[in-house]
């Protein structure tokens, strides 16, 4: 075996090692060193007090959303907590509108710039909350130009970065939503003790 | 001369490459959050322990669920894992968490004997391999499982490592409207530098 062959074999061995090694390499990074690429479709934050129009309605956040556990142990879920969003909905159309479909309101949880699961409105918890605050439920009729002050409650998994709210107003007798807007909720206030 | 130069360059490249690969093997810092690929988040909450018996306090179960034999010992790890994929996981196969110990440079692999929730206050959130734990609940996206992994091992081994490579146990389906498809799968190695020995109440250190 001459020198040339030896060098060639050695080079092949080195290249082979380089190809084999990655399959054994660990792929673990401390989270603070990792650069997360945010979802390009991630919507902007809707600040408290700012109004946005959608279909025949406009919606405005009245205060910082709140998250906390249901204090009643019999019906509380071990994992889920209640996300409460206090909103003002205005009827922009020329006629009275009632019976908004609960499907009009949804939230999506976000983590490290990505959107994950969608949660529907918790109608029972929303009804209990508005009753406690002396507000009206989202189903109520709104006269033209009038506003409805209500609280929307969602049962969500709490250990996430934030939530995106999707507002697609649709009445019960309508086949499709009038329009769709998505916005990120501002920073949520956590209540360590129960909220109800 | 040219050839010699080429060999030196190749050797240097190899050195740099292998050192990069070696450094991606993580010496586990307890309580630190790690990303495994970018599909799972992993925290090793505290030092693993060598112990002779592990008990649980769930009212519906037997009080003891793992006991060391005459020639073996239990190695228990508390591990938190968060699902960053957009899919529901019906539980993990035991091969997802392999413990590796070394003796005279030879590696010995173990699969967990018990995979159970660490905190039984959250018992509903688990559906994992556990011969005495029958409840089923899938791991939704972003959920954190706080698990206790128990291995029956040879006490003479050293330089323990945990090899994590999640494999789903039962079924899997996409839970989100917009599936996240560009995730790196998780395949990570955590090296343990210290292990708490409950028999002697001493910390065992490994210098690697």
For the sheet with most strands of chain A, the description reads: 6 strands, mixed
Number of helices of chain B: 1
Helix content of chain A: 10-25%
Provide the CATH architecture of chain B. Sandwich
Which percent band covers the strand fraction of chain B? 35-45%
Tally of structural domains of chain A: 2
From the 3D structure, determine the CATH topology of chain B: Immunoglobulin-like
The CATH first-level class of chain B comes to Mainly Beta
What is the distance, rounded to the nearest whole angstrom, between the alpha carbons of the first and last residues of chain B? 38 Å
Report the uncertain regions of chain A.
20-25
The count of domains of chain B is: 1
Outline the fold blueprint.
The complex is a heterodimer of chains A (196) and B (208).
Chain A: H1 3-24, E1 28-30, E2 51-54, E3 57-61, E4 66-68, E5 81-91, E6 105-111, E7 114-120, H2 123-133, E8 147-156, E9 162-167, E10 181-184, E11 189-190
Parallel strand pairs in A: 4-11
Antiparallel strand pairs in A: 2-3, 3-5, 4-5, 5-8, 6-7, 6-9, 9-10
Chain B: H1 2-23, E1 26-27, E2 33-36, E3 40-44, E4 49-51, E5 53-55, E6 64-67, E7 73-83, E8 87-89, E9 97-103, E10 106-110, E11 114-117, E12 144-153, E13 158-164, E14 172-174, E15 188-191, E16 194-197, E17 202-205
Can you describe this structure?
The complex is a heterodimer of chains A (196) and B (208). Chain A contains two helices and eleven strands. Chain A has 196 residues and is an alpha+beta fold. Chain A folds into two domains: 3-33, no CATH class; 51-190, Immunoglobulin-like (Sandwich). The longest helix of chain A has 22 residues, at 3-24. The model of chain A is unreliable at 20-25 (pLDDT under 50). Chain B has a single domain (26-205), classed as Immunoglobulin-like (Sandwich). Chain B contains one helix and 17 strands. Chain B has one helix at 2-23; strands at 26-27, 33-36, 40-44, 49-51, 53-55, 64-67, 73-83, 87-89, 97-103, 106-110, 114-117, 144-153, 158-164, 172-174, 188-191, 194-197, 202-205. The longest helix of chain B has 22 residues, at 2-23. The radius of gyration of chain B is 20 Å and the shape is flat. The chains are: A alpha+beta (196), B mainly beta (208). Chain A binds chain B through residues 3, 7, 10-11, 14, 17-18, 21-22, 24-31, 34, 41, 78-79, 108-109, 111-112, 114-118, 157, 159-160, and chain B through 3, 6-7, 10-11, 13-14, 17-18, 21, 24-26, 29, 32-38, 41-42, 84, 86, 121-122, 124-125, 140-144, 175-178, 180, 184, 186-190.
